Amino acid sequence: MRETLGGSSSISVQKKRKLRAGGAFVALALMAGLLGACELAPAPGTSNSPSGYVDVVTGGADSVRVQGWTSDWNTLNPIDIVVMINGVWAPGVFTANLPRTDVAARYGRGANFGYDVTLPATAGALSVCVVALNVGPGQNTILGCGTTTATTPTTPTTTTTSTTTSTTTTSLVPVVRPTVDSAGPPYGTTDGGTRVELLGQNLLGTTSVKFDGVEATSFDIDGPRSVFAVVPPRATAGPGSVTLTTPGGTSDPVGFTYIDCSSANWVAGADLRGCNLAEQDLSRRNLAGADLTGANLDRASFEFADLTGAVLTNARIENTFLIDAILVGATLTDTVIVSARMEAANLTRTNLMGSDLTNAVFDFNTIWSDTICPNGNVQSTECPRTP
Predict the structure, then answer these.
(1) Which H, E and C letters describe the chain, residue by residue?
(2) pTM to 2 decimal places
(3) Residue 221's domain is classified under what CATH number?
(4) Cα–Cα distance between 143 and 39 in angstroms, integer?
(5) Could you tell me if 20 and 40 are in contact, meaning their C-beta atoms sit under 8 angstroms apart?
(6) Domain end position, chosen among 229, 259, 289
(7) Which pairing describes strands 39-40 and 141-150: parallel, antiparallel, or unpaired?
(8) pLDDT in the model for residue 295
(9) Which domain holds residue 235?
(10) Does 32 reside within a domain?
(11) Counted domains in the chain
(12) What is the pLDDT of residues 214-249, one digit of tens each?
């Protein structure tokens, strides 16, 4: 189907799973990772993911217009769409709530599932995809993709009359307030520089990310549900929060913790999550019960250090010296222990579940007693090196 709207260039879009002209761009976008965790729109009513079509993609003067419909069979309410133009997410989240009597007649689910959105676009060839945002079980779906051309606007001239030019605007205005569900990791150092992923809803068009009211050092919008931000420095350690702002408003704060990684905090029970302790000398330190989750311990020295009950989950322990270290009851789940030396270390009741012990050195004085090995076995002899 080919039609012309308002004298502008228009091209129909291949729908569903027919990967022809528009579908080729779908395949390329998926391979390039541009559309994230999306699937092609299923047949209506056959999946938990949204169904629908892109009926027409139309190029106009420095603009592009997309028309179609979408519905999620998990809800009778209208759902949101986002648009990608030449591999870049267009700003805004749009609700598909326009009347579509043909959809109502066909599926008996009401009529307000249509969308008709006009967006600014640079003049030239355009590849455009429309993605429906999932509600409940399922995942986001690609409703369709198409190619068209945006034209350069012309300025009419006359010596006898004045003219007024009108601009085409979208019939849907994105005013949805963003929500942030989590920050990962939920901590960063007081020195700043930790890269944190914020997961939530309606995050396209993010204009600001703040940690305790201070602007993030930088941020990148990864899609409608993900934004990466770099934590700014803060003078003191302790609990804080992070918020995100879009044209739709500011999200409620989510919890975030600032960590002091300085040597003054290398004490029993310390919170050292995510700290970079590479090449540091922690010999004879009492770090019993310390939380070193995600810490970088490469080439650090822990000779005669007490790590009883410490948590080292997902820590990096490469070429690290754990000579005569006490790790009684420590948790090293999923930790990579590459070429580390554990001479006479006490691994009694230490949890090594899922850890990679590649090339780790355990001398004959290492104490194995009720140790949980990478493969899950509890034994009092040297563990196998891999899960």
Answers:
(1) CCCCECCEEEEECEECCCCCHHHHHHHHHHHCCCCCCCEECCCCCCCCCCEEEEEEEEEEECEEEEEEEEECCCCCCCCEEEEEECCEECCCCEECCEECHHHHHHHCCCCEEEEEEEEECCCEEEEEEEEECCCCCCCCEEEEEEEEEEECCCCCCCCCCCCCCCCCCCCCCCCCCCEEEEEECCEEECCCCCEEEEEEECCCCCCEEEECCEECCEEEEEECCEEEEECCCCCCCEEEEEEEEECCEECCCEEEEEECCCHHHCCCCCECCCCECCCCECCCCECCCCECCCCECCCCECCCCECCCCECCCCEEECCECCCCECCCCECCCCEEECCEECCCECCCCECCCCECCCCEECCCCECCCEECCCCCEECCCCCCCC
(2) 0.53
(3) 2.60.40.10
(4) 9
(5) no
(6) 259
(7) parallel
(8) 87
(9) 179-259
(10) no
(11) 3
(12) 999 999 888 888 999 999 999 999 999 999 998 778
Cis previous bond, 185, omega within 30: yes
- Does residue 140 have a pLDDT over 60? yes
Compute, in degrees rounded to 10, the torsion defined by CA atoms 84, 89, 91, 93. 70
Instruction: Quickly state the pLDDT bin for 45 (edges 50, 70, 90).
Output: low
